[in-house]
Queue: 2 jobs
Job 1
Amino acid sequence: MSESSVTRPGGIATILELDFGGYFMARLATDPDPTNDRRGISGYTMALASEPPLDQSIRLQLDPASGVRVRAPGPELGIRVGVTVREVRFDGARYPAGQALLGGARVSLEGANPPFPGPTFESRNNIVGSDDTMMFIINPFDLAVYPAGEGALPGRGEALLRARDELDPGRPGVRVWEIEDPSTYARRLPTSWIQTSTEALDLLQVYDPVRYFDRRRVWLDAELQRQEDPESLEAQELRSRIYQLELWGARMADAYAYLLSYGFRTNGEQTAHPRVRELGEVDTAHPWHFTCWFGGWDGDLLVGYCKGTLAIPFRPHG
Amino acid sequence: MAQAPPPPDPDRARVRALLWDACELEHQLMLQYLFAAFTLKKFPDETCTPAQLEAVRRWTSTIMVVARQEMEHLALANGMLSAIGEDPFFARDNIPVQSWYYLGGNRARAEAAEAPDAPAPLDIPFLWEKFTPAAIRRFVCAESPAWKDVVGTDMYPSWCFAGPDPGSGLGGAGLPLSRSHVDALSGAARGAPGEVPVHPGTIPELYGHVNGLLQAHPEWFRGVPDRQVFVPVEYQLSVIKITDPLSAGAAIDQIVEEGEGIDAPPGYPSHFARFWRVHRELAHMERQGFQPALPVRENPVPDDGWRPYTRAVSELLDYAYVTLLYVLTSLYRNYQDRARPPYPTQALQNVAFGPFMTMVIRPVCEVLVHLRTHPDGRETAGPVFRLPPEEERMIWPRPYPPCQVAPGAEPVPGPPHGNPSPEERDRLAARLDDIDFILARMDRLCARVGELAGGGESAGLAGLRGALVPQAPLEWARERLEYVRESTEAMANNVRRLY
C-alpha cells in the first residue's frame, strides 16, 4: 500500500470523523431456532403471519417497498428505523463544511449473505460464532453513506462514502463457513460485549428493561381486549407476542441491556464520491476505522439502536 | 493373599437398571413430542388460515419446550450414571411400543396404596402420531400427576382414567411390550416378592426409587466432578453437575417438578400444565375443516413403495440421529471439564449441544414432513428416528455389568443384541472413541445432504420437486437442506481444528 499524501510527516494522519446513530432492524431467528428459520418457533423472535418471513438481515435503513415495518407500539414510542450521520468532525473539531454535506446522511450496511438478502450477525447456532458470548461477525461488511433523504436509498453509485471489508483478504468472497481457522476473521468479532450497559439504557432512557417489557405486555393485553373478533389474525398475532413475552420475557429483558461493540480497520475497497472529494483529499489507500455498538435490542419489535463512528484519513483543500 | 472381590451389590444393580429405564423413557417421550411438533404446519393452506397458523406456531413452540426439557432429563439421568461411575445410556427401544411404565395396570398398582378408589388408568402407548386432539390428550396423560392429585381440579384429564375410548388414542393398541432393565434383573436386585413393585408405574415413583437408593449409598459417588457434562441455565434448560446425593436429589426434584408439577407452586408451567393448555386451546378452536397438522402417516417407516427421494431423506435423518447418539455417548464417556490435549471433549461438545440438533436434525425433520411418501398419495413422511440393533450395539454400556447379584443367582441377561465378547467390546469402544469415526460420518452426512439438496437441475432437485407438498415452497426446502450441508461441513471443520 503506498504512503498517503494526506499522512502528516511522522505518519499521523488527520481524520474526518462521522458520528452516526439511530435505530436498526434485524428480523432474525434466535436460538434454539435454526439460524435460517423463516418464521421463528422455538426462539423468542418470530415473523408474524401477516409479515414477510424472517430474513436475518441487518437493516440500518428501511426500504418502504420491502413490506417490513416496525410493529406497534414502536412508532408511538418514537422508534423509527434509520441510522444517520449526527456529527462531522475534522481533526477533533466540529467541521461545518463536512456537516453541511454529510450531516443527516443515511448510513447503510449493504451486500447479501446468501440465502439471506442482506448482511447478518453470523453465528449458525455456535458453528461460526457464539450465541452464548454474542460473538457474531457482521457478514458481509459493506458500509455506505448516502445523502440525507427519505424513502428508498438512491443507487449505489450515489454513495458519498463506501468501505468494504473482506473476511479473508487472500480469498475475497470466501464464505465464512468455509474458513477453517476462525482467527482469520477474529478482527471482525465484537471487541466487547457488555451484559448490562448503562450507555445504551441511558441513551434510550429505559432504565429497567424488565419493566419496559412488562409495560409492553400490558399494552398487548389491552390491544387484545380491544379486538372485536377474538379469532382474527390481529388477535392471534397479539396472542403470539404475549406468548413470547411470557416464555422469554427474562431473556428479552437481558438482551435489551446488552451492548455489542465492534471496531476494526477496513481492508477492502474504499471510495469517496466527487462531492466529498470537493471538500478535501480523501485517503482511500489507507484503512478507514469503523467503530460501532449495537444495543437496546427489543426482541418483540425486532429493533435496536446502533451508534458509531467512521474515521477516514482526510485533509481539506486549501 | 489376594483380597476377594467385593460381593455384588443388588442395590447398585437396581439403581443402574432404574436409571437405564428412566433414560429410555425420557428419550422416547422426547422423540414422540418432537414427532408431533414437526407435523404442525408452517405454511397456511386451505385448512389452516394465517390466523390459525399463529395458534399452531404457539403449540409447536410449547411442545418443543417440553421436548427440550425431556432432553434435559435424559442428560440429568446420564449425569447420575456418570456420578456413580457408570457408562452413559443413550440406547432405547424403537417406537411404536408399549412401555411397562405406562401400562394402566402398573399405574393402577402404583396408585392403589394411596387412592384405592381411583378409576383404572388406561395404557398409554408410545406412537409416532401427528399432532391431533388424540395425540395431545395422550401427551397430557403421559405427563399427568396421579389421579388423587388431579381429581376435583380444573385440570382433570378424565380420558386418562375412564374406560377405553376409541377416540382418545389410548388403550387397546396391541403393541409389543417394551423391555425393562429392572424387569431383566434377577434375585435381590429385582426385589423380593411383595416388596416394592418392579415397575413403579409412574415416573415420579421411578425417580423416587432412584433417589432413595442414591441417598442410601453416598459411597457410590466417586467424586469426579470434572467428568460431569453440564449445560448452563438457558432456553428453559438447566443441566446441573451431579456429584453427591444432594445434587442427585436436586436433579430428581427438578425432573418431577418440570414434568408433572409435583410440589410446584400454583401456575407452574409443568409439562402437564403446558400440554393441558394446548389441549384446551385446540378444543376451543376445533371446527369443521381446521387441520393444524400436515397429513403425516402414522408410524411412517419407509418401505419399497415409497418415493425414492422421500425414503432417502428419511434414511438421511436416521443416519444423522444415530451419529448424534454416537457423539453424545462418546462425549459423556470421555468428558473432561478442563481442556486437555487433544481436546476431544471440546471438539465433541461443540457439535453435541446446539448445532447438531438445531442445524441438522431439526431442519431435516422439517423438510421430511413436507415430503409425500407415495407417488399417488397425499400422506407425508415423518421422523421415526430408527435405532437399528447393530447401531445400538455401539452405544450400549461397556462393559455390560456382569451383575451376578448373589451366589448361585442367575446373571443379568445380556443386551438385546447379544453379549459381545471382551475383544468385541474393546473394538466397539475404540471405534466410538475415535473422533475420525465421528468425522467420517459427518463427512458422509455432508455429502449425502448435498446430493439431496441438489443444484441446478440435478436428480436431487427433481426428487425434491416431485415429493414436496404444494404449500411448501421448493426454494424453502432446497435452501434448508443446503444450509444443513454448509453447517455440517463447518461443524466438521471445527472438530478437526479443535481436536
Note: Confidence is low (pLDDT under 50) at residues 193-197, 403-410 of chain B.
Job 2
Amino acid sequence: MRKGKGFSGMNRREFLKFGLVGTTSALLAGNTVAEAIGQYASSEPFAFPKPVYRTLGRTGMKITVVSFGAMLTPEAEVIRTAFEHGVNYVDTARKYMDGKNEGIVAKALKGRRDKVHVATKTLPTSRSKGDIIRDVETSLRTLETDYVDIIQLHNLTGKERIFIPETREALVRLREQGKVRFFGVTTHKNQPEVLNALVDDPDRFFDTALVAYNFKSDNDTKEAIARAAQAKIGIIAMKTQAGGYATDALGPISPHQAALKWVLRNTNITTTIPGMRDMAELREDIAVMGMPFEYADERILQRYSAAVEPYYCHFCGKCEKTCPKGVEISTINRSLMYAEGYKSHGLALSTYREIPVSASASACLDCAACVARCVNGLDIETKMRRARKVLA
Amino acid sequence: MLRKLTHNSSPGAQGISLWKYGFFSVIVLCTLCASAAVCAEESSIEKVLPAPRCAEGWIMEEKVALYSKDTLFERINGEAELYFPYGFEVLASARYANRENPQVAVEADVYRMGSLLDAFGIYANYRRADNGALKIGAEGFVSPSQLLFYQDRYFVKLQASGALSVEEEVFLSCARAVSQNLPSNLSQPKELVYFMLPAVVQRSERYIAQSLLGYAFFRKGLIADAILEGEPLKVFMVPEESVNAARKAFDQYHGYLKASGQEVQLTETPDMTFISAVDPLYKNVYIEHSGRYLIGAVNLKTTSSGKQLVEQLRKRLPGQ
C-alpha cells in the first residue's frame, strides 16, 4: 500500500488502516478482537452469510442489501464469487475503464444473467437521444446481454439533466425496445436538489437514485433520501465509508463494517454498492448482511469521527467569510491534508504556493487572536499555526 | 541574478576575483536550476497542456483545470478510486474546441501518477490486447473517439467530445504536443521485459497495484494472458520487498487454499518451493516462491502444465 492516499478520495482499504489503534481495543475486548482480526485475514475459513434482501422502490426488484460495485474490480472471478453466494445486483458504468469494466462484469455474469440485476450508466457527457442510445447499445454489446435492469444517467450535479426531453425520449425508446427496464440517476453533488427534483417531477420519470451516503452525511441529504424513498424511488448508497486520513498506524478492527451497517440501519436505503477489489474486501462487506448495528459499531464510528475531526475539513469555505484578512483557509487546510494525510509534501507545497501571500497562513500573524469560525468546530487558529510550521 | 552579481558589486565584493564570481555564479545557477527542476516537476503540470492550441484549429477554452485527490471525483466521478492505488497525484485537464465547430472538442487529461510503472498500470487498465500499439510516449493506442498513452509517470487521455469521432491526425497532433512537454523518458517499465515469452499474448500485460488476482495477500504484481497448447491461461509475478515478505504471501495463499478445502500439494526442496493446487477462483494453479518473488500461472489445464512457463518467467527475473 502506497503512502499518501486520499481523504474523500481514499479507498476503503485505507479506511481500514486508519488509526483506531488503542481505541477499538479499548472498545472491544478479548475474543471479540481475536474474532475480528480473524475475520479480516483472508486466508481464514469463512462462511458466507445468508443473503438479505430489500425491495428497490417501485421497481419491485428484490436485491441484496450488500451489492457489488464493480468499478474497481480487475478480476471477474471475485464478482462471480459474490454472485455464487447470493449477491444479485451489480453496478458498473460505460465510463469505467472505458467500458472494460463492463467486459469484466460480462465475464462474471456468464451463465447467471437471469439471477443477477445489472445496472450501468451512460457516459456523463451524453445528453442527446443519439448519445444515450449509442451508450446503451454499446453497454449491451460489452455486457453481452440483451437488456440492463437499470440504466442510470451518470453524475448529475443539479436538477437540469433530469428534465432534458431528448434524454427522456431516448430512454423511453430503449425501454420500449426491451433494452432497459428502469431508469435511474447517480449523484455526488447537490444531492438534495437532485433527489427533490426526482420527487417533484410530475412525470416521476426516474425510478432509482444512486447517492453518496454515510455517517458523515448532512441532514439535508438524509431528509431528501427519506422523501425520495417515500415517493417509491429506489435508493442505492455509495461512498458508504466517508473517507478519512491514511496513517501508518494499523488497527485490527475495521470501521468499514460499522459504517456499512450504519448506512443499512436506514431502511430508506435499499442497498449499498461497496467497491470490492479482492476476496478479503468481499468477505468483509458481504458479512454485514444480517448483522445489526450495535453499540460497538456506534462507538467505533464515534471514535473514528473523533479521530478524524481535528483533520476533517469539509472544504466548504464558510469559515473564509468570517476571516477579516481573507485568508484562504480551506486551501490551506487542503495543503495541510496533503502534507499530513497523504504524506505528500511536494503536493502540499505546490498547493500552498498557489495561494497569494496576503491570503496565506502568514497573514494570520497580523491578528492578535483568530476570529474565523468553522461551522464544524475545526480549530482554525491551530490549523493555521500548524500550516505555518509545516508549509512556510 | 547573474547580472545583479556582475554589475552591483558592493565595496566588499570588489576584492573578489572574476573567476570567483564566475564559480560562485555557476554554483548559484546550478542550485537554482536544480530547485527549479524540482519545483517545475511539482507545480507546473498545467504547462504540459499546450496553449493556445493543441492542433491547428483546435483552441484551448478557458484555462487548464487542476484536480487533486479530493477533487478528482468531480472530473471522473467514482472512477477516481481506480487511480489512487497507482499513486495518483494530480490531473491537469483542458478542452480544445474546434474553431469552426466549437461544439466539437478534444478533452485532454494528463494524470501524474506515482511512477512509470504506475502510469503503465493505469494505462493498461484501458488498453485491450487488440488495440494496435501507437508510437507515442512509451506506448499508446488510438480509436475514433480517443487516444491514450503514457510517458514517464504521466498518463494521457485525449477524448472526443461533442462528436463520436475526431480525425486521427488531430489526436496525433495533440498527443505529440503534449508528449513534447513531458519528461523525455520514453522507456517502458523494465518489468515488462520479464513477460517477453513466446506463450505470452503480446500487450496483454497489466500491472495491478492492489490485490493481484483478487487476493489481498498478493499485494501487487504483473499479470499477462498466455496460450499454452491452445489453452488460455494467465501468468503472473508478485514482487515483494524481501524474501521473507514473499514467503509470507506464499504461506498466506497456501493457508487460504487449505482453508478453502481445495486440493493442495506443497513441495519444498532445497532448490525450490512451489504449490500445485486447485484454486477456488482459478481452477488449476501452479505457483513458486523464488527469492523475493512469487511466480505463478492460473487457469491451467492441469496443475503441472504451467511449470515450464513459470520457469521461463523466473529465469528472466533479476537475481534468479
Note: The first strand of chain A starts at residue 53 and ends at 55.
